[in-house]
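Long-time lurker. I teach an intro course on protein structure, and each term I like to show students one example going from raw sequence to a predicted 3D structure in token notation. This year I'd like something fresh instead of my usual example. Would anyone be willing to generate the tokens for the chain below so I can use it in lecture? Attribution to the forum is fine with me.
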Amino acid sequence: MKGIGRTVIIGIIIVIIVIAGVVGYYLTIPTGIKAKDTLVMGTTDSVETCLDPAEAYDYFGWEIIRSLGSGLVDYRPGATGPSDIIADLATSWSVSSDGMQWTFTLRQGVKYDDGTTFNATDVKYTFDRNMGIADPIGPFVGIGFSDIIQDVTIVDAYTVRFDLKIPFAPFLSLIAGEECVMVDPKYAPMHGTSWNVTTDVVQYKDGDPRASNPMGLGPYTLANWTRQAGKDTGMKLVANPNYWNASAGIPKTKNIIIQFYADSPTLALAIEDAAVDVAFRQLAVTDINTMKTNTNLVVWQGTGAFIQYLCFQEKYAPFNETNIRQAVGAAVNRTALVSTVFQGQAQNLYSLIPVGMFGHTDAFQSLGDPNYTRTQELLAPFGYNATHKLTFTLWYETSGHYPQSAQQAQVLKSSIEASGVITVNLNGLEWAAMRKARSAGTMEAFIMGWYPDYIDPDDYIYPFLQTSGGSWLNINYSNPQMDQLIEWARGNTSDSARTSLYGQVQNLMEADSPIIPMWQGSAYAVTSLKVKGVYLDITQNWRHWLIYAEQ
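-- Reply from a regular --
Happy to contribute to a lecture. Here you go:
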């Protein structure tokens, strides 16, 4: 896949123009077809923390944020890469010859859900606020926005300029992310003289869905949101009459009701019994295969950009030792994982950068898949052998946030213990509890997953491996050489140079083994026959506003 770096050509100014008010990629409902007013979606997922772009950093949270808000640019449904970025609140944009300034012309006549007019002031407010809050568990810290953006300047009421610290190649792709949707200052105010994580991040407020989110420019408003013990129990999205593209028939369905299920079997039963129109995240592989033969259902498969990996906590023994991390990594049997748990609906992964994305290499093949002899040799100097085994606990989530986590953990346990010199104990946590344990750094080894923030290898490297500010994984990995390589790759606009640098990054990652990539999978959704408008593309975004069902 081509990187956004290919669109930044030194020596000229690139201007990208989209006709204001005309968005042709939204396919219209065929003439004579009457769509249902309400669709019901079933999921096992849940908002991780909140619906504030300053803090939210999870798949489902972003899914709802994009439904409630709009950004400067977006990805075309069916996108294959950064060349498919299209206009949203910006109608055109340009980048300076040195890649250090991006200027956006804004769509005029756009209003928030309460009728307030949107303009350049709101763009600056959004970025100043979210970067100023600097939530340590949020995307603006995790992605490193303050290392990229120097300042946001209001040129005039409908023009805004971003001055960068580095000529960041994937900047336009970054701006297309859900974390960059605009906030309404009325619902995201500053308390005091500067923004503060504790007081200014908008959190869930029981009984008040409007006060529970700071957006207001999206195709939907949040009409209902209930939670219990940190997990969603009910949610309803209602069409926003002030949405800028409402005249084009967006959203296609007026009401989206989201039903939350405890596990994949109950979600599968719900779609089979027509209790829901859509089932998305997470259905078991066996259920998906069965549903492919069900003539009353449609199984939708998307492009694979989702990855899962094994993390080691380096702040205490045993995983403060590189050779021990390598030893466990060498015992991972990816083929068993893919064939047993996912029955071929995934592929082996030997890098954090997905297969098919520029910069990908199979660096971890040299570690072994599995290589039990290497595992035994690496552990022997520490006194571990068949009679004195290395013992550790592997943590995984149990609430359906990731696909078939318990089965993954069991196969990993079996493959690692097949080395003959390791014992693995398993421990499962609900997602909310696992997130807290991750932040506290209390899990010595754990399984995590990643959906892309933006389509570029930087998004699969910087949030995990940059160590100067601390990775969001909180695994206490630190290597100045890694930091330098990532910094060079971030500030380079040449695809060939970046590809070389990411090759070095992946080789160093294999040598240090703080994280072991395991597999790459596709997105699946199951719907009734009447449901249309499902797009599962490279972004992995779920677009509620394009889905409709025939009466």
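Some talking points for your students: The longest strand covers residues 220-228. Residues 397 and 429 are 5 Å apart (CA to CA).
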